[in-house]
Amino acid sequence: MFRALLALSLSAIGIFIIDQNIKTLFIDGYRYYGEYIDLILVYNTGVAFSMLSVLGEWLKWIQMVIVVALLIFIFRLRKVCFMIPVGLLTGAALSNIYDRFIHEGVVDYVSWHYGFNFAVFNFADVTINIAVAWLLLLNFKPSLCKSKF
């Protein structure tokens, strides 16, 4: 159990630190305007594509409850293979939630505009997508995940 908790904690802390340091660059004024991607500072008060921004201050608390519920669920499953992707997911989610407490919105900075204007997103958002894909793979391929703690 200690190794599983260590894997989850280190991956969560690592993603949180990386994401917050990248966001600091943009808060401090870094900008880049390219042909396909702009790196600009945007504060998103909602979730993906600014949905649920009408929830205001409630959104960060709802997200905290979801993260805690996810951690409880994962620990009840007791599967070691879930620890790193859940750590990535937790660290990224907590980084975005932290932004809501400190900046009153998630710090986003990657604006894709090749062919169409896509949503502005950040490193944590990408990490969340990778973690969810990893968890789906483990869920649909149980042979990849046999050990329990």
Provide the spatial order of strands within the biggest beta sheet.
1-2-3-4
Shape: globular
Q: Strand-and-helix sequence, N→C?
A: HEEHHEEH
Rg from Cα: 17 Å
Number of continuous helical runs = 4
Q: Mean pLDDT score, rounded?
A: 90
How big a fraction of the residues is strand?
Answer: 5-15%
What structural class do the secondary elements suggest?
A: alpha+beta
Distance N terminus to C terminus?
A: 5 Å
> What about the largest sheet?
4 strands, antiparallel
Low-confidence parts: none
Tell how many strands the DSSP assignment holds: 4
User: Helical residue percent?
Assistant: 55-70%
Number of folding domains?
1
Q: What does this protein look like?
A:
The chain has four helices and four strands. The relative contact order is 0.20. The termini are close together. A hairpin with a 7-residue loop joins strand 3 and strand 4. The chain is an alpha+beta fold and 149 residues long. The chain has one domain. The protein has a four-stranded antiparallel β-sheet with strand order 1-2-3-4.
